[in-house]
Amino acid sequence: MQNEKEQTLKEMQLEVDDYIQQFKAGYFSPLAQLARLTEEVGELAREVNHVYGEKPKKINEEKNTVEEELADVLIVAIMMANSLDLDLTDAFQKNMEKFNQRDKFRFERKDGQKHD
């Protein structure tokens, strides 16, 4: 396997699946996973608010980082994709095609190009 920092989405999906397959419970239901994803996004939002917002951490709060919380969101999203038998590489490529076509001129471009 490649260096962990160079893993493809497919490799990440396989690694997460290997982890989950250790346990009898396996993957949670889609609704339970969505609840977990929502929880992780909330933790990310809280951390972003502490780091970039106006709400400092309380003295007794854990020292999490935005990076850790964002990784939690990614891992739970991968778990959900795996349980629904979705190929995230394929989904990513399709979405990027959509963004590159639909939103090509949505924002002011650095190269000065404008929609005809």
Automatic annotation (TrEMBL):
Cited Pfam families: MazG
Domain NTP pyrophosphohydrolase MazG-like stretches: 29-107
Superkingdom: Bacteria
Signal peptide: none
One GO molecular-function entry: hydrolase activity
InterPro entries: MazG-like_dom (IPR004518), MazG-related_YpjD (IPR012359), YpjD/YvdC (IPR047046)
This protein's UniProt keywords: Hydrolase
PANTHER family per UniProt: NUCLEOTIDE PYROPHOSPHOHYDROLASE (PTHR42692:SF1)
Protein name listed in UniProt: Nucleotide pyrophosphohydrolase
Protein's organism: Vagococcus entomophilus
Lineage: Bacteria, Bacillati, Bacillota, Bacilli, Lactobacillales
